[in-house]
## 1
Amino acid sequence: MRPDLYISADVETDGPVPGKHSLLSFGLSVAARFDGRRMTPSDPETKTFYCELRPVFDEVDPDALAVSGLDRAKLLANGTAPVEGMGAAASWVLDVAGDDRPVMVAFPLAFDWLWLQWYFLRFSPSGSPFSFSSCLDMKTLFWARQGSPLDGAGMGELPPDLRPTRRHTHNALDDAIEQAELFVRLWPQH
């Protein structure tokens, strides 16, 4: 068995649905490595990847766009082409993972995985570095630990000992780094 390399991911979009709306930015941060016995946290600010993409679809949800604070007109003019950005991200993931298995982690994973997997499969020449299912949902980890209905497992319900010290800014890289810290705190202690 290969060790896992956990890579925290966060995305900012201009709507809820890939293929109809556009991925505007994403951040990746190495959170930790697990060899089956020991989890070794990484400094989440050390190994990171960030990209702002050129929008590819015309439909925009103004509320979703407002969350990111990104200027869509500037991205249309100066954003990275999705083929270039997703190809570079896939190469980065495989490079930092080396012989380890790259595993995407996010809170909640469902949204970030949907976007990144769709964009990797659509635009990266090498496909997805996370294969078809190499992912782990932090919200599920918290939910299982919390022992509450899913409504009680949001970021707002995190107890003080689990809360990251970094702020949630809606910059995809800042938030990937913040969530990398959270992932380490959520890891089951043996």
## 2
Amino acid sequence: MNSYMKRIIWCLISCVIITGTTDITGITGFDLSRSGNKAYAQTLEELQEIAFNNRDIVKKYLNEIKISKERVKEIKGSFLPGLDMAYTLNQLNHNAVTGEKNQNDTFRTAISWNAFSGFSDYYRLKSAEIMTRYSTEMVESTRQNICLNVALRFLEVYTALESLKVAENEVKLYNDRLRQIELKFRVGVLKKSDVLKVKVERDNALQTERRVRALVDTSLNQLALESGKSLDQPLQSSKIDFSLFHELPEKGDYKALELLLVKNRSDLNALKHTLESSKMGVKASKSDLYPRADISLSYASHTRDDFFMKSMENSDDEIRGQATISMNLFDGMQKYSRINQAHLETRSIMHDIKELENSLKTALKNTLIEAEVAFDNLAVAGTGTKEAQENLRVTDLGFEQGIGTSSDVLDAIYNLSRARFNEINAHTQVFANDFQLKRLIESF
């Protein structure tokens, strides 16, 4: 969030905000009703959906889900019997002393099935199924990250547009003051320095307007990039719906949000699935302590004096059924080491879960503190804007009556500019914190 907020704050600082209203929309004069056809205006939710469908990082994780499902299919195959076939041609340089001819072949087919292996296949299957849910959670976590980034870029565009309108109004206000002062200069009431002071401020406002106008374009490009749109089809500010910023979000309660955070966070749930899968891995590793039972049925045909296809009547056939029980008694303590490793991996994941949960809860508390400050600042800034506006009005009256100087007017303008900046900054921070809260509890 810091990089986004720095850009937003820079945008606001760069504008010396001069207008005559306390309403945020009125401050900028940005009238959404004239921002193009509402029926075709894109909302934040639509841009987030476009980003989710277009971003390659999402496609990557969707592909991971497919890989996880294929692994499940692979493991399920171990529950089925295996079928093998082999055909061997032998060419010797002379007949063997055992009576084997120099040309002979062997055909063999076998069906084998593992009847028991200490439940390792079962636990491996459960682990693979759990990891499929892990991949699904990672897709949702990625979607939430994309939604947050798009929302912050969306807010950045809105702030740039607000600042642009403010800068345009500022230039207009300086031009109005300049005309008044030039008129008084011509009649000898004011000095040339009074005119030059206002011109300097007007020229600075013109430069600010150009910078903010460029910032609007770059912000739109960044929003298009974050949304996965092609630069060949740039976004147009007139076709974006910013109406969500007209109503302030509700303040959040920590206890209620904490419950949603623990329940909804995909990365936290993904780690919990990993823990569950790891526990299945512990049980699977213990399968080495159990015996293994295998069943097989085979058929073999060996020709005595020629190739199989030429002399089928001279072949020896064998059908063999086998049941084998095997167990490792000692392997240098390797299986016990594997079991210990599985236990240690499980503990590591538990520590990761605790760390992430504490980190998220702390982030939630801090974001709520920042949100409370932003709401308070917005209320104070609104009052400060009214007071600064009244101060400018009184100063203008005194200047017109000859009891004030141009410096007094410029000071009043500066105070009003600072008050307006505080108001817009607080308004921006309120929504930036709200977007962060939505990301924390995954409510995008």
## 3
Amino acid sequence: MKHIAAVLLLLCANAALADHPIEVIPLKHQTVEQMLPMLRPFVAAGGTVSGMNGQLIVKTTPENLAQLRQIIDKFDRAPRQLRIEIQQGDRVNIQRRGIGVNGTIPIGDDGSLTVGRPSDDGVDVHLQDRSKTWSTDANRYVRATEGVPAFIQTGYSVPVASGYTDAWGRYRWERSYHDVTSGFYVTPWINGDRVTLEISPFRGQLTNRRNRFRVQQVTTRVTGKLGEWISLGGADMLGRGGRQGLSGYSSDSSQNQTPVSVKVELLP
């Protein structure tokens, strides 16, 4: 009985090997390292897929081999060339409203009350209602290859002064340079008319204050349609303030929006 069982096991093993022929498939455009992660989840039980020197080595059933060939034919193609454009903008709105009083008000026969600045013309009441709005857009673009990381950076260096006290108690100034740059890192994938991006745009700006810089960075993965703008995010900052006194009051408000969008187009 033991000999019969051994023979049956050997026959089953030979049958299994016969159902799993070895196939060598040369790749045309993609590398073995790029294709293996896509194929392995679809290999049938008992089958294997490996590769070297630009060739895949597949050992599986004929039915599963046909399925794997379909996947290979779909993804083993020349990577497409893309134009990726990033738009980073500023939308600023500032409003200032208030009322003020200047002049001298007589009190009784010999007294007076001065509010604000004295005036020989009596009392002067002035109103203030001003608003200021402006916007800027910075567009950067790069030519990229599908599936390959791309990077672009633009900017300039600005001098920054700093001081310190040396060992003798003397105060000394030093000048260094700070890079104010903007750009983005991106890796694109195309599926039909849809694009998937792993993207990290960044932006540096000078502020009105000495040695102060504003930095914005977004890191995300998004999917959208080719040729259309895709919103990545941004920041919306709102500030309010004011003052109040005997001579009047004023209120200030400001809104600063920094939207970030991306568009991907296929190149011929």
